[in-house]
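User: Let's play a game. I give you a shape written as tokens, and you guess the letters that built it. Ready? Here's round one.
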């Protein structure tokens, strides 16, 4: 029996579509899905969120069981305010990987809490089970403290006076002239009367994400069950989100005074991008694969 050219073309098109979506019994090629994943992550880093989400839709169409892609799709749909896409991604994720779904929900809750956080220069009243974590800031080329880091340390020093039994974690690597941020921070605090025995030095972190991940491990090692995060007003929301995603119960967010008033209003949607991007990385979703 002869088949018209039209029907041949239609059959070929349908077969190609079925194969690409993995419904013909042929699994999607890992290289194709990895390329889509990497493209999505590059687009999110570059600020092209619509293109990143489109990449993820194509990836999920090819491999509906890709938990990392579903998690990213849920998080960035939340950022975009696309509730149907968020609900769909979370429903799929709950069906195939409940722990990943729970972690993704924690990320979204952390972001919501962070966005609602107000910069607060007043020390929190806390007990010995709550650590004080100070986020570092880049040193001068000779290893000296920049004014912004001194401001953070001053806020931490005041917090240490208000909570004399709380352990202190200073976090920051990025050495200059052979001196890591955390080592310089510890020296400043000791020079201002804080006992060295209270200070725990985390001197490997090179970013806020690593501040959160590495300090969370250190807090657990020293027996702290929660923390007050100390940083600058323009950094506090991102830091709070990262620490919550990393697994730290944040009970206070103490800031220095510079730019305090300008940082009191809730951040715009565009200003929240960095919070979302950091949160995905603190959740340790691969940036490339």
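Assistant: Ready! My guess for every position:
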């Amino acid at each position: 029996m002869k088949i018209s050219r039209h029907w041949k073309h239609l059959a070929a098109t349908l077969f190609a579509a079925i194969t690409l979506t993995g419904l013909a019994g042929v699994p999607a090629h890992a290289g194709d899905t990895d390329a889509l994943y990497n493209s999505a992550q590059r687009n999110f880093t570059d600020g092209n969120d619509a293109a990143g989400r489109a990449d993820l839709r194509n990836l999920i169409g090819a491999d509906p069981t890709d938990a990392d892609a579903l998690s990213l799709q849920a998080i960035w749909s939340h950022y975009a305010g696309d509730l149907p896409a968020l609900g769909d991604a979370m429903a799929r994720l709950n069906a195939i990987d409940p722990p990943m779904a729970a972690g993704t929900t924690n990320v979204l809750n952390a972001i919501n809490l962070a966005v609602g956080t107000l910069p607060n220069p007043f020390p929190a009243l806390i007990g010995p089970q709550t650590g004080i974590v100070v986020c570092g800031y880049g040193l001068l080329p000779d290893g000296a403290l920049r004014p912004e880091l001194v401001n953070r340390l001053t806020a931490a020093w005041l917090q240490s006076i208000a909570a004399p039994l709380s352990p202190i974690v200073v976090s920051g690597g990025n050495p200059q002239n052979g001196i890591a941020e955390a080592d310089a921070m510890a020296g400043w605090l000791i020079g201002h009367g804080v006992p060295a025995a209270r200070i725990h030095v985390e001197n490997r972190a090179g970013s806020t994400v690593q501040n959160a991940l590495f300090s969370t491990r250190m807090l657990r090692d020293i027996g702290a069950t929660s923390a007050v995060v100390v940083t600058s007003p323009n950094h506090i929301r991102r830091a709070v989100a990262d620490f919550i995603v990393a697994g730290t119960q944040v009970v206070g967010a103490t800031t220095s005074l510079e730019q305090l008033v300008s940082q009191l209003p809730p951040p715009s949607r565009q200003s929240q991008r960095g919070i979302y991007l950091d949160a995905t990385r603190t959740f340790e979703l691969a940036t490339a694969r």
